[in-house]
Specification:
mainly beta; 4-stranded antiparallel beta sheet; binds calcium ion; Beta/gamma crystallin 'Greek key' domain-containing protein; G_crystallin-like
Length: 130
């Protein structure tokens, strides 16, 4: 979540259990500055979100795309643990706004370094193409 430039994230599932993530950060001249390929296992996605940093407070465990408004958890999450799959957290509903991407087994104890504290409103797992 760099404050400079505009960030795009494109996801293209290539086959079951594999995905391609293209992440381009555009600088002031609009140039392509980063690219990352993901081949993590996308099966059995599961993420646990926590109300406070360091996995404290109320928590919810999600296994599918969820609007956090629907479960009274919007603009609340401050840390998470990814049990499985690759997850994208969005600042706004309908997959809009800033994004935070997290990978299988990843634990993020605080969203503050990502400028993402208390803003997540929608989460979805990357799904393999059928
Ligand atoms: Ca919080």
């Amino acid at each position: 979540m760099s404050a400079s430039g505009v960030q795009y994230t494109e996801f293209v599932a290539t086959r079951r259990g594999a995905a391609l993530l293209v992440r381009a950060t555009l600088d002031e001249k609009g140039s392509f500055s980063s690219l990352k390929i993901i081949t993590d296992d996308l099966d059995d996605p599961e993420i646990q979100l926590f109300e406070h940093v360091n996995y404290q407070g109320r928590s919810v465990t999600l296994r599918q795309e969820t609007s956090l408004h629907d479960i009274d958890f919007s603009d609340i999450a401050s840390s998470h643990k990814v049990k499985g799959g690759v997850w994208v957290l969005y600042e706004h509903i309908n997959c809009q706004g800033a994004q935070l991407v997290s990978f299988p087994g990843e634990e993020v104890p605080s969203y503050f370094p990502h400028s993402f504290n208390d803003v997540a409103s929608h989460v979805r797992p990357l799904l393999p193409k059928p």
